[in-house]
Amino acid sequence: MKCNNKRGNLIKKHNGKFRVLSEKGKNMGTYDTKEEAKERLRQIEFFKLKNRKKSNLDDDLLAVAEEIGKFSKSAKESIIELIKSSYPSR
After folding, report:
1. How far apart are CA 2 and CA 88, in angstroms?
2. Phi, psi dihedrals of residue 27, rounded to the nearest 5°
3. Could you give the 3-state DSSP secondary structure of residue 89?
4. What's the first-to-final CA gap in the chain, in angstroms?
């Protein structure tokens, strides 16, 4: 079973578990459920976007808003704090 996302990473079932693979086939983690694997994919995509060099907080927030909506409440709070701490005060 394969589940591709838009950027080439995929989820593949292996020995009854779900493995997240990078575009190059590197194992990015093995999870008991497909939902856990999807959550990991969303985290990977979030940090790919975050690591792009941008100087404008508003642009970054817009770029990740759709992905943040898919995270659990506690993950959202952590992400928001991480973004805020990455930028100088306004």
Report:
1. 41
2. -70, 120
3. coil
4. 47
Exposure string over 9-44, b if 16+ CB within 10 A, otherwise e:
bbbbeeeeebbbbeeeeeebbebeeeebbbbbbbbb
| Residue 80 to residue 61: CA distance in whole angstroms | 9
Q: Where are the alpha helices (DSSP H) in the chain?
A: 34-51, 57-68, 73-85
Check if the beta carbon of residue 31 is closer than 8 Å to that of residue 14.
no
User: Contact 63/49 with Cβ under 8 angstroms?
Assistant: yes
pLDDT tens per residue across span 16-42: 999 999 888 899 999 999 999 999 988
pTM for the full predicted model: 0.51
Tokens describing residue 4:
């591709």
Q: Dihedrals φ, ψ of 3, to 5°? A: -140, 100
